[in-house]
Write a structure and sequence with these properties.
Layout lengths: L2 E6 L7 H14 L4 E6 L1 H4 L6 H17 L7 E5 L5 H10 L4 H5 L2 H7 L7 H15 L5 E3 L5 H18 L7 E3 L34 H10 L16 H14 L3 H7 L5 H29 L2 H27 L5
This protein binds tryptophanyl-5'AMP.
Length: 327
């Protein structure tokens, strides 16, 4: 049994991109692996967050994990800041990371572009992410395509530590879905679907009402043709909708193209909205039940205790190897 770790930021409404790119694989992997899934609040504060909104979103993301099918008896579900070893190992790994390596991170470049002032936390963010993964010696990290570069840095840091202080860290592998690793925005297929996009029409939120989902899909940008054909360079918008369709229906791209041959975008979009609703409605019902029951606090407490037992051991080993005086 391998170890799996991943995290999602509580910074806005989770989207269908988060679900298809990451969460669905969390649910899949928990049956065969030892899993750690967390809400990464320490990462969320690398950009300003309103305290009340941060609290609400942290609880919401944790409840969405469970609503999506993560079984708290199988997986450890917790909040990053509840396990202190993350921040401490994060600092230690920051000291092993080069400025040049951080400057090359495309997520940093995107998030800092055009901003007058950028917090230092946003810059060192990838070292904390490396700590999240290495503190459990995770073998596999289920993520969407946009986290690939952070995973590469994590692997480099693990190698660097091992060569300086002796073989210790497992070198983690990314686990990225073949289709759906990069769900694009509904209004612009050159940008990824993102919860931080100010236009809510650009994404499907996991908690959107069916009526909102229908409206967003019917308004999704398409080209002026009418053919349902998967061709990301010539028809990026329609291709994005086809990948979403494939992911929510389990059909292959060829099956979808065949099913809508000669039918135009109207019927395709209508069915797509219904397929999305079929997947999200049961998840939403479970979500509201979980929020009402208050059970999430107990789940998060248990999850953090079990995670901390593992993480604290790693941190103690790391500190010993690096020459920290024992307490
Ligand atoms: P975050 O919160 O931005 O996104 C959570 C997960 O969702 C995936 N994702 C997508 N996948 C497909 N299409 C999209 N449009 C899309 N948008 C988001 C992301 O790739 C991610 O897997 N740095 C991470 C959080 C993190 C983490 C970690 C992940 C912190 N520590 C340790 C793995 C391991 C982030 O900001 O994800």
């Amino acid at each position: 049994m391998g170890k799996v770790l991943s995290g999602i930021q509580p910074s806005g409404q989770l989207t269908l991109g988060n679900y298809i790119g990451a969460m669905r694989n969390f649910v899949k992997l928990q049956h065969s692996e030892e899993c750690y899934f967390m809400v990464v609040d320490l990462h969320a504060i690398t950009v300003p967050q309103e305290p009340e909104a941060l609290r609400e979103q942290t609880e919401a993301v944790a409840a969405l994990f469970i609503a999506a099918g993560i079984d708290p008896d199988k997986s450890n579900v917790f909040v990053q800041s509840h396990v202190r070893a993350h921040a401490e190992l994060g600092w230690i790994l920051t000291t092993l990371t080069g400025m040049g390596e951080l400057e090359r991170m495309t997520q940093f470049k995107d998030k800092s572009a055009g901003k007058e002032s950028v917090g230092a936390g946003l810059f060192v963010y990838p070292a904390l992410m490396a700590a999240d993964i290495l503190v459990y010696n995770a073998d596999l990290v289920p993520v969407g395509d946009d986290q690939k570069q952070h995973l590469e840095l994590t692997r480099d840091l693990a190698h660097r530590f091992n060569s300086r202080f002796g073989e210790y860290f497992t070198i983690p592998e990314p686990y990225i879905p073949e289709v759906g690793a990069r769900i694009m925005s509904l209004d612009d297929a050159s940008k990824k679907m993102s919860k931080s996009n100010p236009n809510p029409g650009s994404y499907i939120a996991l908690l959107d009402d069916p009526s909102v989902i229908r409206k967003k899909i019917s308004r999704a940008t398409t080209d002026s043709g009418r053919e349902i054909k998967y061709d990301p360079s010539a028809k990026p918008e329609v291709s994005n909708l086809i990948s979403i369709y494939a992911q929510v229906s389990g059909m292959s791209i060829a099956e979808i193209e065949a099913a809508y041959e000669g039918q135009g975008y109207g019927p395709f979009k209508k069915d797509l909205a219904e397929r999305i609703i079929e997947v999200l409605e049961p998840l939403q019902n479970r979500y509201y039940e979980i929020r009402k029951s208050g059970e999430i606090y107990d789940i998060l407490k248990r999850g953090a205790e079990k995670a901390a037992a593992v993480a604290d051991r790693t941190l103690a080993d790391v500190k010993k190897r690096m020459g920290f005086l024992a307490t």
